[in-house]
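Re: export button greyed out
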Amino acid sequence: MKTNYKFHKEDKITALTGAGISAESGIKTFRDRDGLWENHRIEEVASPVAFSKNPEMVWEFYKQRYLQLAKVSPNSAHFALKKMEDFCSSNFNLITQNVDGLHQIAGNINVLEMHGSLRQCFCSKCLHSFEMKEIDFEQKIPKCDHCSGNLRPNIVWFGEMPYEMEKIDKILENTKYFIVIGTSGIVYPAARFLSIAKYFGAKAIEINLEYPINSVVLDEFHLGKAGILLPELIEKWIT
Ligand SMILES: [Zn+2]
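Workaround output, generated via the alternate export path:
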């Protein structure tokens, strides 16, 4: 596999990871094709309206997603990104659309979880946050210890603003390389991130299972599984 780039420790490098990298660890994610996520329509389980209408069902859904995490581990793509952070430390920023926390388990520290985390929840009334592992799932709708408000998963739902957007914009304005992994560069937010990074002069690299439609904005594209391609690419980039 060919790449034109060599990274230096002082280079600012940003990666964006999406569902593809989690899927390679066996995580079942939302599929755009049939619009279903584990047999649920996405709007039934991933919107504030759904939560206010049927909090029990929404909790049951996320409880199952959370329990699934006990059975999955980071794959070689996650570990390759840990190597990247070891190489350029705080010059490396990892933005993820995934909510499974596998990057942190692989050892990455500087992770921006723009869509939240399945491993946390918070009180919808007083906003106090809790680790999911502290939650007693015997309760159909877990309650806050402080104010007895309904807890909700710390997941950015449809109609809600993704986390850390201002910080992400700043990072992209200053990055030298922007690497999109396991997500298509044509959909929001990757498309927007790509155009910001490109506008400010970054080189854009994508690794994905499908050919990009907007390949003009990419400087390099690698077709295939991140778990196979990324360890090899990172080895070439940093040595
Ligand atoms: Zn509370």
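The two ends are 15 Å apart (CA to CA). The button fix ships in the next patch.
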